[in-house]
Amino acid sequence: MSERLACRVLGQHRSTQRKAPKGRADDAALTADIIELAMRYGRYGYRRIAALLRDAGWVVNVKRVERIWRQEGLKVPAKQPKRGRLWLNDGSCVRLRPERPNHVWSYDFVEGRTHDGRKFRMLNVIDEFTRECLCIRIDRKLKSSDVIDVLSDLFILRAVPGHVRSDNGPEFIAKAVREWIAAVGARTAFIEPGSPWENGYCESFNSKLRDELLNGEIFYSLAEARIVIESWRQHYNTKRPHSSLGYRPPAPTAVPWPAALPQPASPATSNVADKPTMH
Q1: CA distance 38 to 44
Q2: Which of 19, 156, 249, 257 makes a 20 to 30 Å CA pair with 216?
Q3: What is the DSSP track for 100-154?
Q4: How far apart are CA 36 and CA 275, in angstroms?
Q5: 64 close to 47: Cβ distance less than 8 angstroms
Q6: What is the pLDDT of residues 150-184, one digit of tens each?
Q7: Please, what is the end-to-end C-alpha distance for the chain in angstroms?
Q8: Structure pTM?
Q9: CA–CA separation, 201 vs 72, rounded Å?
């Protein structure tokens, strides 16, 4: 008698005669950690979550994380549209590309507000080659003298870069700033007016800062904003997987030698436990 006929006579579905998939023993723990990381870093996709899991000790590939990600109904953040280069009328392309660390720095301003509605400004400085955020200066008002103050500290700590890229804001094109940068041996690289895509590295960083932190935080004081934003900057540099760097952070922390063998661990209670939770 065939299986089909036997099941029809007994009134049961043929799938009851199949071997039920058992799955892996650690599926529940892995799913819990993926959900925890997705809740903690709401703008991260499954690839970046997979990189965080591997850093925490999980031996897992992207496909398995994607399967659980879709199974749990989690959504990948919308991708940013690609922008083309700026082409001149003669067919030439003006684009200074970083070739090594300390070759091109870029800096820009971002505005935020505290809970009382008052504005504050952030001066973000990044190394375009390593993608590392070198500094975020926060204050109610920032002028050209503050730009010189920030750059002078960084030049002492990091050495003088080859070029400093910025837009044409008054704080950047001020005579004092241009003369000071030239005096220390660096060169300015101003973008064309109305062309923010020419400062794409810094604009990309600014969008991540706003999307992953500023849009989800309430700052009750300027001091709180400085502490929380600096903590996020450290996380961005040392822990946050960067897609253009092969899902490695820009400046990962050193691992003590001898390194421990990879063991399944819970990032919900280990590596990510000390990160600030979005509100």
Answers
A1: 7
A2: 249
A3: STTSEEEEEEEEEE-TTS-EEEEEEEEETTT--EEEEEEES---HHHHHHHHHHH
A4: 12
A5: no
A6: 999 999 998 899 888 887 777 777 778 888 888 88
A7: 63
A8: 0.63
A9: 33
